[in-house]
Design goal:
This protein is an all-alpha fold. 71% of the residues lie in helices and 0% in strands. It is built from 14 helices and no strands. It has helices at 2-7, 9-17, 19-24, 29-39, 42-65, 72-93, 102-119, 122-129, 137-142, 154-167, 172-184, 192-196, 203-210, 215-224. The relative contact order is 0.08.
């Protein structure tokens, strides 16, 4: 709604400055005066622009998830990237905006992080850890050190342990060993094509093609992804 208002900003300003608007608002002067004041208030428009900027990463994440195919494997990384992008936008814009202070920045981050902590489950971290593309060295290199491979992230590692303990109480050691080999790209997962296709092939198809030597892990990955 706010984006639509920004698109017609000049038309709104012309409208509230016209003689017709002045005549019309006599019948409802309080609301009419408020609308006119906001349309002519550049400080208000700057707040609208800022709101649209720092909520864009969240909006884009929601749009990317609104598809007719599995998205669980992208949720954890998507949320992590969204939080970082949001904070970067706020830090870049805040020096020019008097109404943005440390309290505002902290509040926005707390809202997002609290929501994610309540929403995040071990299944999200396991799906993230089973997505081959997040182990691609090229992907981590492009992030300038900001992105870690799942097995090097403490939160992901803890979530994976919790999920596996629930799912495989009798085959836990075998499955954990398979995930370790998969993450390191060794043993059954050291094939050149398997390593090269981590970031180029659909994750489910990757597990169908390259995960046959670890049946328990392959079945788990296909079911989750």
């Amino acid at each position: 709604m706010l984006r639509c208002l920004v698109e017609v900003k000049h038309a709104l300003v012309s409208m509230v400055m016209s003689q017709l608007w002045i005549e019309w608002r006599q019948a409802d002067s309080e609301r009419g005066s408020m609308v006119r004041r906001l349309c002519l208030d550049e400080d208000w428009w700057s707040k609208v622009d800022f709101l649209l900027k720092f909520t864009t990463p969240a909006f884009e994440l929601l749009q990317s998830a609104n598809i007719d195919q599995p998205f669980l494997a992208e949720v954890y990384d998507g949320m992590d990237s969204m939080v970082k992008k949001t904070m970067e936008i706020i830090s870049q814009e805040s020096p020019q905006l008097l109404f943005v202070d440390a309290h505002f920045v902290g509040l926005v981050k707390k809202i997002i992080v609290d929501w994610w902590n309540n929403f995040n489950t071990p299944l999200h971290t396991l799906a993230h850890a089973l997505n081959p593309k997040f182990y691609d060295e090229g992907l981590t290199a492009q992030s300038n050190g900001k992105r870690k491979a799942p097995h090097k992230d403490r939160e992901v590692a803890n979530g994976v342990k919790k999920a596996l303990m629930r799912m495989f109480p009798f085959h836990l050691h075998r499955v954990k060993g398979g995930i370790a080999s998969f993450a390191a790209g060794i043993d059954d997962y050291a094939d050149i094509s398997a390593l090269e296709e981590r970031s180029t092939m659909n994750p489910v198809r990757w597990w169908i093609c390259h995960g046959g030597n670890g049946v328990h892990l392959q079945n788990l990955a296909i079911r989750i992804l």
